[in-house]
Amino acid sequence: MTFAIFQWLERTRLSIAINESLWAFAVIEAVHLLALAVIGGAVLVVDLRLLGFAFQRQKVNDLARVAQPWFLWSLFGMLLTGFILFLSLAASKYYVHTYFWVKMYFLAAAMIFSFTVRQWLIMGDETRANSGLAKLVALVSLFLWAGVGLAGKAI
């Protein structure tokens, strides 16, 4: 994306409306943080099971099926509110902000990893979900999603 696109985005009607509103930014930020907490919980529940620290009596794919709607809806909410916050906080400032790009790279990697490698593992057979590979997948997943949160905090 070029700098001109970032400048254009910060001048959209939505961006202006949020910036002129007394409460819009706070409400959107609260929903964004709530979505981040929910996605963190959905990821954490399954990854702790993969690591063998929690829910050991439950099958991984059963636990993942329960957590998946929470993961998907919170991811959607987090992406939507994140984009709106991006618009309202002078998008062109993000263009030169290192941690913004770090967060975007972590987010892209976390989403790709979650929908490919992690999904393949947690929806597979129970033997694979209890292997050393499962523990590695859980650690990588936790690292990537923590990177999203920490880079966001650094912004």
Give an overview in words.
The chain is mainly α and 155 residues long. The chain is 83% helix and 0% strand. Helix 2 crosses helix 4, helix 3 packs antiparallel against helix 4 and helix 6 runs antiparallel to helix 8. The protein is elongated and about 55 Å long. The two termini are 19 Å apart. The mean pLDDT is 90.
List keywords for this structure.
single chain, 155 residues, mainly alpha, 8 helices, 0% strand
Q: What is the gist of this entry?
A:
The protein is mainly alpha-helical and 155 residues long. It has helices at residues 3-9, 13-20, 24-51, 60-88, 91-95, 98-122, 126-129, 132-154.
- Structural class label: mainly alpha
Number of helices: 8
**Rg over C-alpha atoms, rounded to the nearest angstrom:** 18 Å
Number of strands: 0
Q: What is the distance, rounded to the nearest whole angstrom, between the alpha carbons of the first and last residues?
A: 19 Å
Strand content: under 5%
The unreliable regions are none
- Please estimate the helix content: over 70%
- Averaging pLDDT over every residue, what do you get? 90
Largest sheet: none
- The succession of helices and strands, N to C, reads HHHHHHHH
Per the principal axes of the C-alpha atoms, what is the gross shape? elongated
